[in-house]
Design brief:
With 310 residues, the chain is mostly helical. The protein contains 18 helices and no strands. Helix content is 65%, strand content 0%.
């Protein structure tokens, strides 16, 4: 047992490649020790917490996590150990926080250019879908959903067509739509961002607009969200909704359908007060372009609260 630890430490930091990477990125040696501790169940909790805190300070932590023996398996073990607690509701706040720390480390792996492709090839995002599928509104479940959405959000943020190809082969769209329909404001925002990024990819737009059923499912959820924003405004959420609608309007068949199903609240300046600040100029521009695309003559007369053309 005494010889195992030095050998493992050498595997982490003794190779020429690892030393060169450490020299370039100035990764402290104790970070390697924390990564090593992930494979030790007795030290894993502390290592998860410390590494999740430090992940943004060390951009090249992801390759170390991915290439270290047993590390990803340990993170996946943390995730699957939660599955039995999802239903019926038996998840504690402590276990939720611990799993979210593991998810945070997977997020940095998902977003790093050196590890993203391998992350997808291993189908690791699928391990997160049971968390997205939960419906309990308790804080510990919401935190788990939101952190899982963050991992998927980090993937789509890279504007990598391979990511969209992978996601379209999974159930991510219906999972996001359900969260957009029933989640908290923050979860709705991240889920809508994911749908937005899927739509902005040509294959994503084609997929959603391939059948009327797919289009109407997305459109109905967006419409319901717009109506909800009348009662509980969220400029950030409205921005993503407008971008989704605008992208849908760039498809010929979807554009024709939007002429009759787009909410009146997007036509009649209901949100003019929310979008009056200069910081929301982009959202106003998207909304104006959307109305133009669907042939709404009202957009020609749309003005912002200061009386200038949007």
């Amino acid at each position: 047992k005494g010889a195992t630890r030095p050998m493992h430490k050498a595997a982490l930091e003794g190779s020429p490649q690892a030393k060169e990477k450490a020299a370039k990125t100035k990764i402290p040696s104790h970070l390697y020790e924390l990564v090593q501790d992930l494979v030790d169940p007795s030290k894993r909790d502390t290592a998860l917490l410390e590494l999740s805190k430090k992940r943004e300070d060390f951009p090249d932590l992801a390759p170390i996590l991915w290439n270290s023996f047993g590390t990803i398996a340990a993170l996946l073990q943390e995730i699957v150990s939660i599955y039995p607690l999802l239903s019926p509701a038996r998840l504690t706040t402590e276990l939720s926080n611990r799993c979210c720390n593991a998810l945070a480390l997977l997020q940095c792996v998902a977003s790093h250019p050196e590890t993203r492709t391998a992350f997808l090839s291993a189908h690791i995002p699928l391990y997160l879908y049971p968390f997205l599928n939960t419906v309990y509104t308790y804080r510990q479940y919401e935190f788990l959903r939101l952190t899982s959405l963050g991992v998927i959000g980090a993937l789509v943020k890279m504007d990598d067509s391979d990511v969209i190809t992978f996601l379209l082969q999974t159930q991510i769209i219906p999972l996001c739509l359900r969260i957009m329909d029933n989640g908290s404001e923050l979860s709705k925002t991240v889920a809508t961002f994911i749908i937005q990024k899927i739509l902005l990819d040509d294959q994503g737009l084609a997929y959603i607009c391939h059948t009327f059923e797919r289009f109407s499912t997305v459109s109905d959820v967006l419409r319901k969200m717009v109506l909800g924003l009348v009662e509980q405004p969220s400029v950030r959420l409205l921005k993503h909704i407008c971008r989704c609608y605008l992208r849908l309007s760039e498809n010929k068949h979807a554009r024709e359908a939007l002429q009759s199903c787009i909410p009146n609240e997007l036509r009649d300046n209901t949100f003019a007060e929310d979008l009056k600040d200069d910081s929301e100029r982009v959202t106003r521009k998207w909304l104006q372009q959307l109305l133009r695309n669907i042939g709404d003559v009202a957009d020609v007369r749309n003005t912002d609260p200061q009386g200038t053309k949007m």
